[in-house]
Structures are given as C-alpha cells and as structure tokens.
Amino acid sequence: xxxxxxxRVQLQTAADQAAHAAIYNRNxxxxxxxEAKQEALTVISSLVPSExxxxxxxxxxxxxxxxxxxxxAFTAMPGSRAAVRVKxxxxxxxxxxxxxxLFKLVGFDQFDIITSSTYTSYLPGCLNEGFLxxxxxxxxxxxxYSNGFCIHSNTHVSLNSNNTFDAGTVVSMPDxxxxxxxxxxxxxxxxxxxxxxxxxxxxxxxxxxxxMMTAFKTYSxxxxxxxxxxxxxxxxxxxxxxxxxxxxxxxxITSDTVIDLSVTASGVITANELTPGRIxxxxxxxxxxxxxxxxxxxxxxxxxxxCEIKFAAxxxxxxxxVATTDISDTSMNAPAELILGHSDDCAEGGEVLLLSxxxxxxxxxxxxxGARLIALGPIKxxxxxxxxxxxxxxxxxxxxxxxxxxxxxxxxxxxxxxxxPYYRMTL
Length: 427
Prior knowledge:
Elements: H1 2-27, H2 33-43, H3 50-53, E1 62-68, E2 73-76, E3 83-90, E4 98-99, E5 110-111, E6 113-122, H4 125-128, E7 130-133, E8 137-139, E9 144-146, E10 150-153, E11 157-159, E12 163-165, E13 170-173, E14 189-190, H5 192-195, E15 196-198, H6 209-217, E16 224-227, E17 233-236, E18 246-247, E19 259-263, E20 268-269, E21 278-284, E22 288-291, E23 298-305, E24 308-311, E25 315-324, E26 332-334, E27 338-341, E28 352-356, E29 360-362, E30 366-375, E31 379-381, E32 388-395, E33 399-401, E34 406-408, E35 422-425
Parallel strand pairs: 7-10, 7-32, 8-11, 8-33, 9-12, 9-34, 10-13, 12-14, 13-15, 19-21, 20-22, 21-23, 22-24, 23-25, 24-26, 25-27, 25-28, 26-29, 27-30, 28-30, 29-31, 30-32, 31-33, 32-34
Antiparallel strand pairs: 1-2, 1-3, 3-6, 4-5, 6-35, 16-17, 16-18
Helix pairs in contact: 1-2
C-alpha cells in the first residue's frame, strides 16, 4: 500500500506540474495548443522519465477547454485558453502499471493508477477593482468603503480614524501586525477588523505597462493584439472566453494608422484636435502636455506621450486610454476636479485607462466611473474623491489618499484592456 500511495503521489505531482505548464505557456507565452502540450511534456520529463516509467502522459491526455465553477465540471473545447485538464497514468495497457509485492500472494500482480489535474485562469477580485500597491497604502479619515471594495498592500496598510468598512470589503497585507492604526484603533474604524485578511499578491500587470505603450505604436486593426512578458507583441485570434492576458485592442479604435502630433510649450490638446477611433502619439516642446476636456470629453482615443500630462480642472475623459513614459512622481496630474469614465451606475461603456512609467497626483474631486490607474510610481489623490463606482488603482510604489471619500465595488463596467491571467488548480 505504501508503494501504491507513493506512486500515486508521484503521478499526481506530474499531472499538476504539466497542467500548470500547459495553461501558463498557452496564455502568457501565446503558444499554440500543440506547443503548450509539448512544453508540459518537457516539464515533467525529469519527474517521470520515460526510460524508467514508460508513457505516463501523452498529448492526447492534455485537453484545453472551459471550467464551470458552479457545476465544478470541465468541458473540452479546442482553441480555448480558459482551462486545461491533464490525465497521467500508470497502466497495464502501456506496460507501466505499478508492480505489487505482497499483493501477489492474493493474486494482484500489478495495479493501474490514473490521476487528473485541472487548472483554470481567473482574475482576482481585488485586481479588477480596488487599491493595490507594492508599497504602503496610506488612507486617512472619514472614508466609506462598501460593496466589497478591496484595499491591498504588499508592505502594509495605514489608516486614520472614522472610516467605515461595510460587510464584504477587504483590507489585506502580508503581516496584519504591521497594520497602521491611530491610537483609537478599531473603535473608530467600524467594520475594519472583519475586513482584514493576511495575503500577498503578485501585481504582474506592472511588468507590462511599458510594453502596452509600445504595442500601440505598432497596432493592427486586422487582428487582436496581445502582449506577454517574454515577447513584445503578438497578433492572433481572440479568445473564445474573456481575455486571459494583457489585451491592447480597445473596441473604439477603428484604424491602425497612428496619428503623430506635436504641441508647443503653451499648447493645449482638446477634443477638437483629436480624431475619434485613432491612436495619437503626442510630443511636446515644453515640459508638459496640457489636456483640456472641459468643453467636450476626450473620448474614443488613445494618447501616448513622453511628456508630463496635466489635465485641466473639470476635464472629462471617457472611452479612452492616456499613457505617458515620463518617470516623475507627478507625470500625470490635475489641479482640481477630474472625471474619468461615465457616471452610469456601473453600466458597460465609458471605461478609462491611465498608464504611467512615473507617478500620478490629483487634487480634490477625483471621480472614477469604470477607470483603472496603473503607475510605476506613487499615486496620490486628495480629499472629496466622491462617487468612485468602478475604481482600480495599481502602483509599483505607494498609494496615498486623504479624507471624505466614498468607494464601492462595481463588479462590472470595467471592460478595458488591462487584465492579466492568474491560474489556480480546481480539481
């Protein structure tokens, strides 16, 4: 029995490693099904070498498909990237069944063993909406977090007093002992204790920020464009399910002809200077690019610039991506009210993505309605950031917010191209 259990554990480990290798390489390295299957076979070749264990896994026993979480059922579907099932075996038919010892005394000379492993891709809820940072997330007082909103730091979270955390909200960090609280502690932060979770998170979307910007310069309207950490850009067929990798094909872009613009030091870009449905590469003679979306929203465009970007107070950005390669801590900023996305109570459409190789700094009245901010530098925003419905901030450094904010989870209305897959074993 000990020998049988040891053989089963060895076979299960091989199945688990093969399944993970298959789905990872299928998605993140954009391998074909056959290439991903071959990679899975290579990964386990040292664990169960064929010269010793025979044929434990064949390409025919690696199937891509979809996973129904509710029914806990896998369905094979050629062409899918959403899930994979791998079956490994020691079989008499393959001449590699597990030989018995004492069982021979009762007529059992060998045993067949079959193991299975299923992996599926998924998007963690906190990565879809919430505040996430590698460094400290520092939020002040009189803020309300509701409907499952998420706050996470891979360092620690620091809070002041008079904050409210409704049921279902999450505040997480690797070591809860490092939670920063005022002297009043939990007594002035209603619901915080129930929201706490001990967790670390791989914010791998941060690795692709620069590549996303580069991909727009060689964008192709003929095929969806994806990017991966080990390649630059890859064009291929769209996934049969939701996107499971970084996607850089906003639905409102209708031409792959990039528009080059240049503005003077005193120049201002408004909606009138931009062409809807197009990608704009905008250079500037002065220290910054001024964008004014007050008279008409900046809409249905992609803007990529090497300059610091300053939004005029009261600007509206909708159905747009704005990116800068400037590395200063204030590479994107606004002196007052900035409205990102449609105030449509979490309906689809109007989503905004801001990308920066530096940091972002916004004064009072930041409004996020289906908007994601991703920065390699710190993100700062001041008081009265009200009506955050569909909000995501991800920073490679810190996130700092002040007081009188209302934040809630939309759980929808965030259909824009900045999601990366994570993988987990389901069976």
